[in-house]
Amino acid sequence: MSYDISANTRSLYIHWPFCPYRCHYCPFVALASHDPFMERYHHALVKEIKNFARNYTEKLPLDTIYFGGGTPSTYPDHLLLDMFAILREFFIFDENTEITLEVNPGTVRFEQLELWKKLGINRMSVGVQSLNDSVLHKLNRLQKATDVYSLLEKAPHYFDNISVDVILGLPEVTIAEWKQLLATVVTWKITHLSMYVLEVHDSTPLFFNVTSKKVTLPCDDDVVDTYHWSREFLESHGFMQYEVSSFARAGKESRHNTTYWERKPYRGFGLGACSFDGISRLQNEKNLMKYLESIEQDRYQPPFTETITKDQIYAEKIMLGLRRIKGVCWEEISSDLSEEQKEKVTTVIATLQQKKLIVENNGRLQLTPAGLVVENEIITRLSL
Fold first, then answer.
1. Which of 27, 147, 177, 315 is placed for a possible disulfide with 106 were both Cys, Cβ 3.0 to 4.6 Å?
2. If DSSP codes are grouped into helix, strand and coil, which group holds residue 102?
3. CATH for 11-261 (3.20.20.70, 3.80.30.20, 1.10.340.30, 3.30.200.20)
4. pLDDT tens across 239-291, in order?
């Protein structure tokens, strides 16, 4: 199975897996202490991109490009220059294309900001997470609050579209400290904020530390109450919620992430990257050496491919649609359901409405503020 080049692909994801350290809560395809492989990986990445682009007789126009990681702010300057030369050779994009680079404080040389701007990068996503150095260091995230302040003082001179990530529910962070963090964040010259609730993923160091009781997490009720307070606080400062974890000033919603939520086609390149053509989903090799060697030897095939079934399409539309504040169109998600399935789902919806977890508004199903914090449970109950 291969990606359908007739799909209306307007978004690229480029994965840079290298990190100076690996955070204890990180579930992503990320590699610490692998810097000697950066150049070799870059050349494999370029080859993968070229092989895809050569399927088209004309340059593909792009709406978004996203450099994720890992820590893309560690992408060496000369290699990033080469990457953009390749992208411009095979694709069409300009200042209206949203081009995002994920950045970790403490990894940025400030002359890089000027280079990134010249290359055409116009959106930064900064991993702040917390301003408590001690808490972060215990989770093996080795940045400092001073790194964050320094970066967010200089970055607005180069970029007028800056997003920051923060994590709610970190161990040892009091409610008062969290509120002070958000009070500080809203004073920065940023346009977007992603507020994630800490998840403990299997087989991460955090998972083992929580299981062994070396680390104690805040109680769920406190996290839920703080999430509600945070929503209201951010909206009172002009950051409107448009997705479970996403808040933006008017017109500054993430166009790239919206591609995922709307199930539009996208192409991912690099270690573990995913692609979707509207019908099929692919995921790249997650093992670095297997990825490198197979591309270098012209025998690369994604190890995971699947054609999406009708039931999976329904599940994805529910999951991705209900994440968004605008919700999901009932007619759209129910059109392919059998009468029996419709009856089952409408019964569940009625129960959720009685519990004030979901509402119907002009034919769209929307989670209430109470529903947003138990989104995963609701999606499970709405499954076929």
1. 147
2. strand
3. 3.80.30.20
4. 999 999 999 999 999 999 999 999 999 999 999 999 999 999 999 999 999 99
